[in-house]
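Structure tokens
________________
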Amino acid sequence: MPNPPTVAVYVPEFLKLDMMHVYRQISAFEGVKCHVFTHKIENTEHFNFHVRRLHVLEKPKMRWWRRWVAKHVKKEPWELFDWELRRFVLELTRVDAGLLHVFFGHIAPQFRTLMKVWPHPVVVSFHGADAGVNMNKPGHLKAMREVFQLGHRMLCRTESLGRDLVALGCPPEKIGIWRTGVPLAEWPFRARVEPEDGGWQLLQVCRFVDKKGLDLTLRAFAGVRKRYPGAVLTLVGDGPKMAELKALVGELGLGDSVVFPGFVDQWTVRKLILAGHVFIHPSRTSADGNREGIPNAALEAMASGMPVVATTHGGFPEAIVSGESGILVEENRADLIEQAILELLGDEALRMRLGEGGRKVVEAKFDRAVQVKVLEGFYRSAMESY
């Protein structure tokens, strides 16, 4: 039996706690041998990987200078130093890599020189923000269009992201849809019944940035609490909006009914989702163009039978048909989010129907076993046709 081909994956840090979706895919390969290249290793207690297939690239001592010049003088993304390029090509050759997969789209312009000299295909995956941020700046847009030209395939988590890339200038034939894979065996279905003590558990899991709509979640929850005073909202994560959100909790008089556990490991997230009743994620496009694909935690909630309230934003309509597999409302409408939550809390049959519908969607479109094979198929096709 022939040896499986070797692919290289680049991710800047291996891995941040909110990058479980990356680990799930690259740790489940069967048809390829994967080597990971990174500039920093962290959280190894959560992300076990073959030590001999994990390679740390040296960081330039003048990295700060390169970034400064790129941002303030050239006004475009920075690229590898010549010695970095030689070192990376040498390392890729040493492991006999036949393909490089770059996570994420906004990182890819750094590797334009590598794409020009390395005699193997490079694929780039886009997950949400990396398809929009800085694309209003001519230097960044020009660099991204060069990535589109030099790269073999642009892998998008959703069809909406694919359309965004085409609008930016990517040839449609280079777009490939590779969806987030959820390990279904880890997410048993559970019906959401009314708690005897009235302690409804509402949940959102994300980075605390503007596009996640956390302020809308809090305002909607304030209305929910008037009818269900025992309800609790847990906001899992952290980020630049933390202080602002805590101040809003005080302003709305929500007191101890909102819990901020910070970033937690995947097992704790799973426990919270399985214990929760409604998952909330009112995404919106932020001022800098940052937008959503389909949040992983929302798919996990759907897999567990937890009904999801979200917005008609990004890739959500590809995962949720409102009234069948969740509820979608307009962006920036806290009143509609509140209304949807109250409807769910007051109707057990609706919770069951939407929970079952959400599970079916994940089984049909987001099963990790299927999506890993899709990704391996893109790899094989690229290496055979390059």
Observations:
- The chain has a mean pLDDT of 93.
- Residues 181 and 367 are 5 Å apart (CA to CA).
- The first helix runs from residue 20 to 26.
- The chain has two domains: 6-181+367-385, 184-365.
